[in-house]
Design a protein that fits this description.
- The protein is α/β, with parallel strands linked by helices and 478 residues long.
- It is 34% helix and 22% strand.
- The strands form 4 sheets. An 8-stranded mixed β-sheet has the order 7-8-10-9-13-17-14-15, sandwiched between helices.
- The two termini are 31 Å apart.
- Bound molecules: ligand BES and zinc ion (2 copies).
Length: 478
C-alpha cells in the first residue's frame, strides 16, 4: 500500500472511498454526516465500524485524538475494508503534530498485514493507494514537512515490524537457525550493516557452555549472530540482545502437546532486534548499535542436554539444570556476557522468556525488569510514545533466594514456582556484572509477540512486538 500526501481539501481528492473517524462519539462534525446512520445503529462508540459502500464512506469510532487511539481506529478500518474492492482511500488529518500523523500511517500499514504465504489461494489485496489530505479535523494548518517526515518514519518502522512478523510467523521447519542467519546476512548486506555469524566452535572457544547445551539435540548448529550499525558520528553505543529459539519443544522436560503449539514464535526477541536494526539503518540514527542474537532450537534426542546437567557459562558461573524448558535464560546468559564485553553504554534484551509473564500481564503487555528506576522509566515513556504496552515487574530479594542450587552456583529454575517471570529476570541479573547492573533492562515479550487473534492493528499471529518501543527509546537517547 502506498501512502501519499496531497495539499488539497478532502472533497478535492479523488478516491474510491473516504475514511472518517468519529472522535469521542462526536457525530456533529464536518466529516461526519449524521443522516448516514439514520437506518443503522452506528453511534460512534470506540472500535465500532460502519462501511457504507453506496456512500463511499467508512466510519470508525475512536476514543480520542490520542495517537494510539487513532492508530487503533484506522487499523481496524483498514482490516474491515479487506472484504471490499476499493482501490484507493482518502483520509483527513487528526492533529497537526508528527506523532498523530505518523500514527495514522502506522495504523494503515500495520493493519493491512496478513500472513498468507502458505495459503494456496491468497486473497488479492485491492486497496493499494491511500491519500492524506491537508484538511485537519479542527482546521489546524498543516506543515507539509511534518507530514513528509511522519510518513517516512511510519514507512520505515512498519517495514521493520512486518519484516519481524514474517520471521516469527514462519514455520519452525522453514526457519531453522541456519536459515535465520542467512536472512540476517541478506538483510545486513542490503542495508550496509556488518555481520558475523559464529557456530559451535566459537561457542566452545568462548566457553559459552549454557548456550551450547541448549543447542545439543538440534541437527542444526547454534548461531551467535552479531550485527553492527556504526554511523560516522555517534553519541552512544547500545547493545540489543535477542532470544532466538526457532523452536522450543521444552527439550527433555518436554512441553505438553497444547503448549508446543506456537513455539515457532520463540525467536521473537531475536526477530524484533533484527527488525529494529533494519529501522535504525534506514533512518540513519546517530548511535552505534550492536545486535547479539542467540539463535538455536531446543529439541529432544540422544544428544539432548538433561535435567541434572551442570553447565558453565561464559563468565565462569555454573548452572544446575532443573528444567530444560527454561532454555531461553541459558542462551541469554551467555549472550549477555558477550554483550558486556563489547563495553556498550546500555544493554537491552528482548525475549519470549516466560509463560508466567503472559499470565501476569495478559497477551498484550511487555514485562519490564531491571535494577535502575530511571532506565525503566525511560522505557515506559518510550512505550507510551510508540503505542506498545509495557509494565514493570519488580525485582525483590526474596524471590532471588529460590534460585539457589546445592550443587552449582545457581539453578535455572526457582525451587518455588511462583513469580516465574521475575525469577527469570533475576536469573539473567546474575550474569550482569556490577558495573552494568544499572545499565541493563530485560523485556519479556512472551505475551504480545504472538497472539492467536487479531487485535487493534495487529493480525492473528506475530505482532512484531518490541520493534517500535526500542526504536522510540533509541531515538530518545540521542
Ligand atoms: N518459550 C517459553 C516461554 C513462553 C511460553 C513463551 C508461552 C511464549 C508463550 C520458555 O522457554 C519456557 O518454556 N519457559 C518456562 C519456564 C519454566 C520452565 C520456569 C515456562 O514459562 O513455563
Ligand atoms: Zn522453554
Ligand atoms: Zn523458550
Amino acid at each position: 500500500m502506498k501512502i501519499e500526501f496531497q495539499a488539497k481539501k478532502l472533497n478535492k481528492i479523488k478516491a474510491d472511498i473516504e475514511l472518517a473517524l468519529v472522535i469521542g462519539k462526536n457525530l456533529n462534525h464536518k466529516w461526519v454526516k449524521a443522516k448516514d446512520f439514520e437506518d443503522i445503529s452506528f453511534n460512534g462508540e470506540t472500535d465500532q465500524i460502519s462501511v457504507l459502500p453506496h456512500k463511499k464512506k467508512i466510519y470508525i469510532g475512536a476514543e480520542s485524538l490520542d495517537h494510539e487511539d487513532l492508530r487503533i481506529a484506522v487499523g481496524l478500518g483498514i482490516k474491515a475494508l479487506d472484504q471490499y474492492k476499493f482501490k484507493s482511500l482518502k483520509i483527513g488529518l487528526y492533529g497537526d503534530n508528527f506523532e498523530n500523523i505518523k500514527a495514522i500511517a502506522e495504523g494503515l500499514l500495520l493493519g493491512e498485514y496478513k500472513y498468507e504465504k502458505h495459503k494456496s489461494k491468497p486473497k488479492k489485496r485491492e486497496l493499494n493507494k491511500v491519500i492524506f489530505s491537508n484538511e485537519e479535523y479542527s482546521d489546524l494548518k498543516i506543515n507539509p514537512e511534518i507530514v513528509k517526515n511522519a510518513l517516512k518514519e511510519a514507512q520505515i518502522l512498519s517495514e521493520a515490524v512486518l519484516f519481524t512478523r514474517d520471521l516469527v510467523n514462519s514455520t519452525p521447519s522453514e526457519l531453522t537457525p541456519v536459515k535465520f542467519s542467512e536472512i540476517a546476512k541478506e538483510m545486513a548486506l542490503k542495508h550496509g550493516l556488518s555481520i558475523k555469524v559464529y557456530g559451535e566452535d566459537f561457542l566452545k572457544k568462548e566457553g559459552m557452555g549454557a548456550f551450547l547445551a541448549v543447542s545439543k539435540a538440534s541437527p542444526f548448529p547454534p548461531q551467535l549472530i552479531h550485527l553492527v550499525y556504526k554511523p560516522k558520528n555517534f553519541k552512544s553505543k547500545i547493545a540489543l540482545v535477542g532470544k532466538g529459539l526457532t523452536y522450543d519443544s521444552g527439550g527433555l522436560s518436554l512441553k505438553p502437546s497444547q503448549a508446543l503449539v506456537n513455539m515457532k514464535s520463540d525467536e521473537s526477541g531475536a526477530s524484533a532486534v533484527l527488525g529494529t536494526m533494519l529501522a535504525i539503518s534506514k533512518s540513519q540514527l546517530p548511535i552505534e548499535v550492536h545486535a547479539i542474537l542467540g539463535v538455536t532450537e531446543n529439541m529432544i534426542g540422544q544428544h539432548a542436554y538433561k535435567p541434572d546437567d551442570i553447565l558453565k557459562a561464559k563468565n565462569g558461573k555454573t548452572i544446575e539444570v532443573k528444567n530444560t524448558d527454561a532454555e531461553g535464560r541459558l542462551v541469554l546468559a551467555d549472550c549477555l556476557c558477550y554483550a558486556q564485553e563489547l563495553k556498550p553504554d546500555f544493554i537491552l534484551d528482548l525475549a519470549t522468556l516466560t509463560g508466567a509473564c503472559k499470565a501476569a500481564l495478559g497477551d498484550y503487555t511487555i514485562g519490564l525488569m531491571g535494577n535502575d528506576a530511571g532506565l525503566k522509566q525511560s522505557l515506559i515513556e518510550a512505550g507510551q510514545r510508540s503505542g506498545e504496552l509495557i509494565a514493570e515487574l519488580p525485582f525483590n530479594r526474596y524471590l532471588k533466594q529460590f534460585l539457589k542450587s546445592e550443587t552449582a552456583d545457581i539453578s535455572n529454575v526457582p525451587s518455588v514456582r511462583m513469580g516465574d517471570a521475575i525469577s527469570a529476570g533475576l536469573f539473567l541479573n546474575e550474569f550482569i556484572e556490577k558495573k552494568y547492573k544499572n545499565k541493563w533492562v530485560h523485556l519479556d515479550i512472551a505475551g504480545p509477540a504472538y497472539v492467536e487473534k487479531s487485535w487493534a492493528y495487529n493480525s492473528y499471529g506475530a505482532s512484531g512486538a518490541g520493534v517500535r518501543i526500542i526504536f522510540e527509546w533509541l531515538k530518545s537517547s540521542i
